[in-house]
Amino acid sequence: MSTQASMKTKNTMEKGFIYLILAVAAILSIFPFYWMFVMATNHNSVINSVPPAFIPGAELVANFKNVINTIDFFGAMWNSLLVSTITTIGVLFLCSLAGFAFAKLKFKGKNFLFIAILVTMMIPPQLGLIPQYIIVTKLDWLNDLKAIIFPGLIDAFGIFWMRQYISSNVPDELVDAAKIDGCTNFRVYWNIAIPVIIPAFATLAIIRFMYIWNDFLWPLVVLREESSYTIQVALRGLIDNYVRDNGMIMSGTFWATVPLIIIFLLLNRLFISSLTEGAVKS
After folding, report:
1. pTM (2 d.p.)
2. How far is residue 64's CA from residue 87's CA, in Å, rounded to a whole number?
3. In the chain, what percentage of residues exceed pLDDT 70?
4. Residue 30 has pLDDT above 80, yes or no
5. CATH number assigned to the domain comprising residue 86
6. How far apart are CA 249 and CA 213, in angstroms?
7. Which domain holds residue 200?
8. Which keywords are on file for this protein (predicted)?
9. Residues in Cβ contact with 231 at an 8 Å cutoff, skipping those fewer than 6 apart
């Protein structure tokens, strides 16, 4: 009995230690968002005081009014939402289609093409800035959201992620059986692969949506007019060379982050499911 009691106590202590670590990690992860919210609700003088305030203030509405008076916040948010949504949907479809082809179809040069796609992941995106700009200029897409949408419709990491997930979660026997029944390759992809890879869709959607939403360099290069600005480019207009209103800047940044939090919360369960799929698979 004493041995069982000691083992039970040990297990309880181990669980308590794990929960403590998780609680500390959660606090450290949430604190930047909390601090951003605190700054967004306080006056600039309070933010610059020593020590700074650690509790929310009463300037949230006033700071946000300053934001919308300074930049076209809602227009930029709509542009970012439009670009991120269309690009994410395109990436999910095209990358899963390519991933299915690399995982389940047999064709000449498949391995070489897949390796070539992986090699592109090693190339810094800044190296493609000038060629992409020349192409966009030739297509007359400057100051147009198409200049951001179309280059982002395919993603090397997305192809790799989908190929690996489909290879391990869609049985070859199921694909062969569907083909024997007369299914085309696209129907096998649409009716058999897609229902299985929904968790992988959620993971890739979160990653790609956040990347497009937070992208600053490429939109800054191709978008020149305020009406076409995405939110990250528009937020740059909150920074004044002479007077820096941190409350206003943090207010704009906070509200620009809210859509990302909503997307993550909506897809959180599927995201966790995709990460734990291999751990619970027998």
Report:
1. 0.86
2. 28
3. 93
4. yes
5. 1.10.3720.10
6. 17
7. 71-238
8. Cell membrane, Membrane, Transmembrane, Transmembrane helix, Transport
9. 73, 76, 77, 79, 80, 213, 256
